Amino acid sequence: MMMEEAIEKLPKVELHAHLNGCIRESTLFDLAKERSVTLSHEHFHHQDHQVPSNSSILDHDDPPAARFFNVRPRSLQDCFDIFAEIPKCVDDLISLRRITLEALEDFAKHNVVYLELRSTPKQLHVQSANKTGNYGAEQKKPRLASKKDYCHVILQAMEDFEKDQNQLNLKQEEQRKIANESNAPSSQQGPIPTMTCRFLVAVDRSHSNETAMEHIELAKDLVQSDEYGYRVVGVDIGGNPTKNHFHDFRPAFEVAREAGLKITLHCAEVPCHDNDDDPSNKRVVIAYDEAKSILEFAPDRLGHALLLPPSLQSMLQKSKIPVECCPTSNVMTLELAKDFHGSLLDGMKQHPQLPLWLESNHPVSINTDDPGVFDTDPTKEWRLVQETYGLSLERIQQVLLESMDQAFCDTATKDRIKTQMKLAFDS
Predict the structure, then answer these.
(1) Which residues of 116-144 are buried (b: 16+ CB within 10 A; e: fewer)?
(2) In whole angstroms, what is the distance from residue 59 CA to residue 224 CA?
C-alpha cells in the first residue's frame, strides 16, 4: 500500500488526453437526458465498476490481478462507435465548457501539474437546439458558433480554472502560515500543485485534407490573435486509423511545422508487418507505408506507436522521438486482457512495446488517452505500470521529469514545473 499511496501523491504529467474522451459518465447521462438522446445500451449503461462476483478472476493466483480488472471492455471499434455518440450530447458551447472544466478538475484531483488537452474543433450551437423545452416550433434555429469559438471556450475554461486554483492555493497558504505561527496542527500537508493547462488543436483523419489545413490555420490564428492563444502549443492528427493516409495530410503539417507549432501524430494503431508475404493484404501494406512515412516526417512526439514491426521499431529507437503511451487504452483496444479473464495486469504484461521502451530508456510518457471511456485516471495508469513492471519510485519520478521535457510548452514553463516536481519528490 505504501507504493500505491506514493504514486497517488506524485505530481504527474498528462500529454495525451482527448477532451470528449474525458467526459464523466454521469455528465454524459445528464446531457443525454436533457436532450432526449438515447445512448447505445451496448456501450453506455450504469455499472458498479467492481469485479463481478461470478468472475473467474477472483480465483486468480495473483491477488493484484483483481485490483486491475477490465470492468468496461472496449475494442478499437467500440471506441470509435462511442466517439460518434458523444457529440449528440455535447452539442453546444455550454456543455463544451462543462466537460472541459470537469476534465480539468479530474486531472487536478490526481495531482497532474501539467496537462495537454486535445480536441478537434467543431461548429456547435451557442445553446443546444435539442435541449428539452428550450425551443418551440415558432423559434428560430439557434446560431452556430465558429470553430474558433469552440477553441476559445476551452482556452477560457483553462484560464478560469487556473485562476481559481491559484486563489485556492493562496488561501491555503495563508491558513498554513497562521497555523505555523500559533503552533497549531494543520490539516494541510503542503500546497496543492497548480495545474498548468495547454491545448492541442486536433485533426480528424476521417475528414478531408482541406479540413486539416483549416484546423492548422486555425491553430496559427489562435496563437496570434486569441487572448489565451499562448495556451495553444501544438497540433495532432488522430481518429480512425483505417481512414485515409498520412500522405494526404502531410502538407498541412508541413505548414504547422513552418509556423513553429509542435506536432504529435497518432501512429501504428493497426497491424503492419515487415516484408508482408501476402501482397493482397493491402491494409497491412498501407499501414506499414504510413507508419514509415510518419517516422520519416519526424514529429515532435508520437501517439501510441503500438504495432511497429522490427524495422520501424529500430527507426524509432534511433530517432528518439518521444512516445505518448496510454497503458489501459492500449490493453483494451488491442484486447490484450481477453485471454486473461479481463485482467488488465496480465494484459499489460503482453504490451507489445512499453517493456522495450522502459528498458532502453526511450523517451516515453504515461497517459490516460480517454479516461471517461476507459474508466481510468493518471493514478490508475501509474499503478498499473508499476505493478506490471516493478518500477521503483525513483524510476517513476525519472519518467515523469522526462515527460515534462517532452511537453510542448515553452522552456521557462518546463523549468518552473520541473522545479516544482523535484521539490514535491523531496518532500
Answers:
(1) bbbbbbbebbebbbbbeeebeeeeeebee
(2) 58
Check residue 56 and give its pLDDT. 46
Q: Across the chain, how many H-helices and E-strands are there?
A: 17, 8
Crossing angle (nearest 10°) for helices 378-389 and 2-9? 140
With a cut of 80, say whether residue 61 has pLDDT above it. Answer: no
Q: Measured between alpha carbons, how far is 160 from 169 in angstroms, rounded to an integer?
A: 14
Residue 44 has pLDDT above 70, yes or no: no
Residues in Cβ contact with 306 at an 8 Å cutoff, skipping those fewer than 6 apart: 268, 269, 330, 334, 352, 353
Cα(113)–Cα(198) distance, rounded to whole angstroms? 11
How long is the chain? 427
One-letter amino acid at 4 equals E
| Strand extents, DSSP E, 120-164 | none
CA distance to 40, 136, 302, 328, 338, per residue, from 335 (Å): 21, 46, 21, 10, 5
**Of the listed ranges 37-41, 64-68, 90-94, 106-110, the one predicted with least confidence:** 64-68
Task: Dump strand ranges (E) for 239-300.
Answer: 262-267
CB count, 10 Å around CB of 259? 14
- For residues 194-208, average pLDDT: 97
For 107, residues 6+ apart whose C-beta sits below 8 A from its C-beta are 14, 17, 115, 195, 378
The DSSP-derived string for 224-252 is: HHSTTGGGEEEEEEES-TTSS-HHHHHHH
Please state the pTM of the whole predicted model.
0.90
Name the grid cell of 76. 478499437
Residue for grid cell 491555503: 172
Which residues have C-beta within 8 Å of that of residue 108, sequence separation ≥ 6? 161, 165, 192, 195
